[in-house]
From TrEMBL:
Keywords: Signal. Residues 37-125 form the DUF3887 domain. The lineage of its organism: Bacteria, Bacillati, Bacillota, Bacilli, Bacillales. The keyword Transferase does not apply. This is DUF3887 domain-containing protein. It comes from Ornithinibacillus caprae. Residues 1-21 form the signal peptide.
Length: 128
């Protein structure tokens, strides 16, 4: 019985070590995309739509034109003054890094969902 359990234990221990070593890349990736999302949110708060638009991939530029980005203005104005980032997370889905950031404002909090392609272009932008 001991001869069977020892190899199983060793394999399980090796799997745990391998899984733990991969988290460093995940943490740095998470940090990178959260930082980029926070920059996008800051640009949106400043109504700097041109700079946000410049970060769009080709499909996003077709879906949301620069002229239509002004639709964010009333939404962010009714939120009040930006206070801080409350929560954030990144999930890799279908080749995109989907970043969800909860931003606190004086009147109403907003949830930003910003998807980035693997070459760090904005592939999706949603504000709730």
């Amino acid at each position: 019985m001991k001869k069977i359990l020892l190899p199983i234990f060793i394999v399980a221990l090796m799997l745990m070590l391998v899984a733990c070593s991969g988290e460093e890349n995940s943490d740095s990736t998470t940090e990178k995309y959260i930082e980029q999302a926070e920059k996008v949110i800051s640009l949106l708060n400043e109504n700097n739509y041109e700079e946000v638009y410049a970060k769009f991939n080709d499909e996003m530029k077709q879906s949301l034109t620069l002229e239509n980005m002004n639709t964010f203005t009333p939404l962010l104005e009714e939120s009040g003054d930006f206070v801080e980032i409350d929560q954030s997370s990144v999930e890799e889905k279908d080749g995109y890094f989907v970043t969800v950031v909860v931003a606190k404002y004086t009147n109403q909090n907003r949830v930003f969902t910003i998807s980035f392609s693997d070459n760090e272009e904005i592939a999706g932008l949603f504000v709730k």
